[in-house]
Amino acid sequence: MKNKKNIKKITKNTTLAEILDFPGTSEILIKYNVPCLSCPLARFELSMLRLSDICNKYSINIEELLKELNKNIKSHD
Asked: Which comes out higher in pLDDT, residue 45 or 7?
């Protein structure tokens, strides 16, 4: 399944809104305890929240998260 912006790879600069365009990514973000999905204020900022900023703020292993997210989007290609 293609995403709205035709992104082929998720990077540290990809926004949360862009990531959530892919099927299955919300489950992966939940697995890594990304709190922004349940934060009412973050809903207004999804298009501005970059993965690197979120991971730095909440001490989330960005390399492992990127690996899993990109594996997921390739499986839906």
From this structure: 45
Report field, pTM of the whole predicted structure over 0.90: no
Count of residues for the chain? 77
Q: State how far the Cα of 53 lies from the Cα of 49, in Å rounded to an integer.
A: 7
Q: Any residues with CB less than 8 A from the CB of 12 and at least 6 apart, and which? A: 50, 51, 52, 55, 62, 66
Strand partners, 50: 15
Cα(33)–Cα(61) distance, integer angstroms: 11
Tell me the domain boundaries of the chain: 16-75
